[in-house]
């Protein structure tokens, strides 16, 4: 069973931060403990499917002005939830048990480094919970999880017009990359 991380407190059965810091490594719970909020970060489960789909559709609309077909998005999210080689999802719950944010990661193998790059593929926070540090919390969790899995980098792409997200990512330590993202559409994407 995947661990659940509670902001401001230790997860049941988690090791103390002194041991992890002695190894020079922060655990995911160490990262979460920085946030004195009433939120829980956990790996997404099948029961989160509807929230993940609605967040992905809203993210496309808000970030790119793009309307996505929820049935296609549902198939994509289902594929990731059922196979971690496709994608990994996390959700943030409020202390009332409401899913209020999510993020997902895909992995890319680097033969140059013999390690994975972890790419943040999605990041969404429900409007009523924005400005409370949830982006920072999720990126902290992803950074710790990626580091602990031996990943080389945590990377992301963001639409150039999404200035709010760009600023949030910069506050979290992301810098501009010397690479350009290019694409070649192989079929008419719906």
Care to give the gist of this entry?
It is built from six helices and six strands.
Structure report:
This protein has 190 residues and is an alpha+beta fold. It has a single domain (4-171), classed as Aminopeptidase. Helices cover 34% and strands 22% of the residues. It has helices at 17-22, 28-32, 49-64, 70-82, 134-148, 163-171, and strands at residues 4-6, 39-43, 88-94, 99-110, 115-125, 153-156. Strand 3 and strand 4 form a beta hairpin. Helix 3 crosses helix 4 (70-82). The N and C termini lie far apart (36 Å). Mean pLDDT is 85; it is low at 8-23.
Give the number of DSSP strands. Answer: 6
The CATH superfamily is known as: Gcn5-related N-acetyltransferase (GNAT)
Helices and strands, in order, run as EHHEHHEEEHEH
How would you state the average pLDDT, rounded? 85
CATH architecture: 3-Layer(aba) Sandwich
Overall outline: globular
Number of helices: 6
CATH topology assignment: Aminopeptidase
What portion of residues belong to β-strands?
15-25%
CATH top-level class: Alpha Beta
**Termini gap:** 36 Å
Give unreliable regions as ranges: 8-23
Category by helix and strand content: alpha+beta
Strand count, sense and barrel status of the largest sheet are: 6 strands, mixed
Physical arrangement of strands within the biggest beta sheet:
1-2-3-4-5-6
* Helix residue percentage: 25-40%
Radius of gyration: 17 Å
Number of domains: 1
């Amino acid at each position: 069973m995947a661990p659940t991380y509670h902001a401001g407190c230790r997860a049941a059965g988690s090791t103390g931060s002194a041991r992890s810091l002695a190894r020079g490594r922060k655990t995911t719970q160490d990262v979460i403990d920085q946030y004195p909020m009433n939120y829980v970060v956990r790996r997404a489960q099948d029961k989160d499917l509807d929230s993940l789909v609605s967040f992905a559709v809203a993210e496309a609309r808000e970030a790119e002005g793009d309307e996505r077909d929820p049935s296609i998005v549902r198939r994509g999210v289902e594929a990731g939830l059922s196979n971690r080689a496709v994608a990994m999802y996390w959700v943030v719950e409020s202390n009332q048990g409401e899913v209020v944010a999510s993020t997902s990661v895909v992995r890319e193998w680097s033969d140059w480094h013999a390690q994975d790059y972890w790419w943040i593929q999605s990041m969404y926070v429900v409007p009523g919970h924005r400005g409370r540090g949830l982006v920072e919390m999720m990126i902290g969790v992803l950074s710790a999880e990626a580091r602990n899995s031996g990943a080389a980098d945590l990377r992301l792409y963001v639409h150039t017009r999404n200035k709010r997200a760009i600023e949030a990512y910069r506050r979290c330590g992301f810098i501009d990359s010397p690479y350009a993202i290019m694409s070649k559409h192989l079929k008419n994407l719906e």
